[in-house]
Design goal:
The structure holds two protein chains of two kinds.
Chain A lengths: L8 E4 L5 E6 L10 E6 L6 E4 L13 E6 L2 E6 L8 E9 L5 E4 L3 E5 L1
Parallel strand pairs in A: 1-9
Antiparallel strand pairs in A: 2-6, 3-4, 3-7, 5-6, 7-8, 7-9
Chain B lengths: L2 E4 L3 E3 L5 E8 L8 E6 L5 E7 L6 E3 L7 E6 L4 E6 L8 E8 L8 E4 L3 E5 L2
Parallel strand pairs in B: 2-11
Antiparallel strand pairs in B: 1-3, 3-8, 4-5, 4-9, 5-6, 7-8, 9-10, 9-11
Classes of the chains: A mainly beta, B mainly beta.
Chain lengths: 111, 121
């Protein structure tokens, strides 16, 4: 059971816009920033969004992030076949001694 | 360019220990913390802990306290993660991932290629 809650799956057709949600609590998303990672099949995760909505250089502006209260979202516009991957949200959690926590991951299928 | 290169796959018996290395290059090694994250087959990502490559201080996830040791060698810009008392549930891909800054609260930006550890009798 992951500390951050994501839908296990999402799907869309090429060109569509899809969003993936990430729900947490006051000790993680509510008080810290959120990162998003993309993991293509058989590869290491790649940073997609940091500090809620910032994109590292090289990440297309089709990817965008937002945060409100204890929830965050990743939006992908102009969906492409190469976007088919697993997506994870992550945040620092202040509870106990503190730890990094992840969502369970969302498998995005491009139909 | 920033690069993290990890050691090769390992097969271990239950009860044994494994030590995974992660060689960093392309940046100032002591200016960024380093995280370790693992992923069991078909499962999500799990944070194991973080090391400060400058002073060597560590912070471990409660789940791994007493079983994990993270160290570094500044002369070779390499960090190590050793996990002891292995059990079948430790079968996973282990990743090192650079923190995006000098501190525990900086998230992972650049990831190693992963090291598969298989625990089987």
């Amino acid at each position: 059971q992951s500390v951050l809650t994501q839908p296990p799956s999402a799907s869309g057709t090429p060109g569509q816009r899809v969003t993936i949600s990430c729900s947490g609590s006051s000790s993680n998303i509510g008080s810290n920033t959120v990162n998003w990672y993309q993991q293509l099949p058989g590869t290491a995760p790649k940073l997609l969004i940091y500090s809620n909505y910032q994109r590292p250089s090289g990440v297309p502006d089709r990817f965008s992030g937002s945060k409100s209260g204890t929830s965050a979202s990743l939006a992908i516009s102009g969906l492409q076949s190469e976007d088919e991957a697993d997506y994870y949200c992550a945040a620092w959690d202040d509870s106990l001694n503190g730890s990094w926590v992840f969502g369970g991951g969302t498998k995005l299928t491009v139909l | 360019q920033v690069q993290l290169v990890q050691s090769g796959a390992e097969v271990k018996k239950p009860g044994a220990s494994v030590k995974v290395s992660c060689k960093a290059s392309g940046y100032s090694f002591t200016s960024y913390y380093m995280h370790w994250v693992r992923q069991a087959p078909g499962q999500g990502l799990e944070w194991m802990g973080t090391i400060n490559p400058s002073g060597g201080s560590t912070s471990y996830a409660q789940k791994f306290q007493g079983r994990v040791t993270m160290t570094r060698d500044t002369s070779t810009t390499t960090v190590y993660m050793e996990l002891s008392s292995l059990r079948s549930e430790d079968t996973a891909v282990y990743y090192c991932a650079r923190a995006s800054g000098f501190g525990l609260l900086y998230g992972m930006d650049v990831w190693g290629q992963g090291t598969t550890v298989t625990v089987s009798s």
